[in-house]
Fold:
Amino acid sequence: MAVETYRQFVMQLLTERAQRVAATDEVEIQTLFDPVHDHYQLTYVGWKGDRREFGCLIHIDIKDDKIWIQQDGTETGIANQLVALGVPKQDIVLAFHAPFMRQFTEYAVN
Structure:
């Protein structure tokens, strides 16, 4: 598949997920898209009372014509959603696993 298709899939999935995540008046859900450098994130930022809330739920990079999942804080797994859209498993790298562990997954090593 073409990298442009991968960009569209990633932005679509992150946008859909952002709409489902429960934001509050104090915590904002943000989608961060950098299609020039192929970095994509779903983050949350704000305050819960006097406690700072900040984190990255999903971080995806596209490099070497593959989708690199750097962070996936979802229950269903963003990789499963990408496969459902037609992305071949050999084009998805579970980068949150150590390189030596990736050989034991159904996905690309690098």
